[in-house]
Amino acid sequence: MIQSxxxxxxxxxxxxxxxxxxxxxxxxxxxxxxxxxxxxxxxxADRMERLGINRxxxxxxxxxxxxxxxxxxxxxxxxxxxxxxxLIWPLIMIVTMLGAVLxxxxxxxxxxxxxxxx
Length: 118
Fold this sequence. Notes:
- Helix 2 (25-50) crosses helix 3 (55-104).
- It is built from 4 helices and no strands.
- The protein has helices at 2-23, 25-50, 55-104, 108-111.
- The protein has one domain (2-105).
């Protein structure tokens, strides 16, 4: 009897947590990313603190480095986007011309057909 109550409690708990995660998945993403970033940056802050830098200053330095890295990533993506526009249009034209050449080429049957020999 006690085991079945334990099992029912844990199953109910699991389904309630799963339902909450499913309902709040859009809201939880920034918090999960923030926790992951804090988990990665904690050892770096510890190392900087051992070097004599105040933990607050170390945290501000790391956050500013992350912001600079994100801005650089956005700028690089913008540049690559502009570059890819210049690359995609000629590729589309090449594929179109290749398709036209493949459609217009004679088939192997036409090459070996005795009717068309001069």
